[in-house]
Design brief:
alpha+beta, 4 helices, 30% strand, globular
C-alpha cells in the first residue's frame, strides 16, 4: 500500500448517521459521543466497515450497493446493532463510501468480515472511544 493511500485512510472522516445527528470519527481521536453510544448499548467493541470498493479500487455504484446489501444481510442475520454512515476523504479526492458502525463485534470477527469483502482496512475500537485504523494488506 502506498504511503499516500495510508495517509488518506488516516485523514479520512468516518461519519455515522445516528437518530440524534451525525457523529464524526477520526483515527486516534477519542470521541465522547461514541463512548456514550457504546455504554447505552452495553457494547465493548465496535468496527466501522464497508463492503464497497474492495482493496481501494473504485467500483460502480451498482456493484458497491450490491456488496453493501450483502454486508447488511450478514449484520442482520447475526443480529448486530449497526448504524449507517460513510467514509469521506479529507480532501474530497475519493468518493464517499457507504459504511456501517457495527456495535458489539469483536476485532477478530470484524477483520474476518473485512477480509471477506476484500477491504484494505477498517476502523476498530473499544469502549475507550478511540478509533484505531487496522490495515489488512
Amino acid at each position: 500500500m502506498s504511503q499516500e493511500l495510508l495517509k488518506a485512510y488516516h485523514q479520512a472522516l468516518y461519519a455515522v448517521h445516528l437518530p440524534t445527528g451525525e457523529m464524526i470519527l477520526k483515527v486516534g481521536e477519542r470521541n465522547q459521543n461514541l463512548i456514550e453510544l457504546l455504554n447505552g448499548q452495553q457494547a465493548e467493541a465496535w468496527a466501522f466497515i464497508t463492503g464497497a470498493n474492495p482493496k481501494s479500487q473504485v467500483l460502480s455504484e451498482a456493484e458497491n450497493r450490491s456488496r453493501n446489501e450483502q454486508l447488511i444481510a450478514f449484520l442482520k442475520k447475526e443480529q448486530y446493532v449497526f448504524y449507517e454512515g460513510e467514509g469521506r476523504s479529507f480532501d474530497g479526492n475519493w468518493p464517499s463510501e457507504k459504511s456501517f458502525l457495527v456495535l458489539g463485534i469483536s476485532e477478530k470477527e470484524a477483520v474476518h468480515l473485512a477480509k471477506h469483502f476484500n477491504q484494505a482496512g477498517l476502523l476498530i475500537g473499544t469502549s475507550s472511544g478511540v478509533p484505531v485504523l487496522r490495515m489488512l494488506e
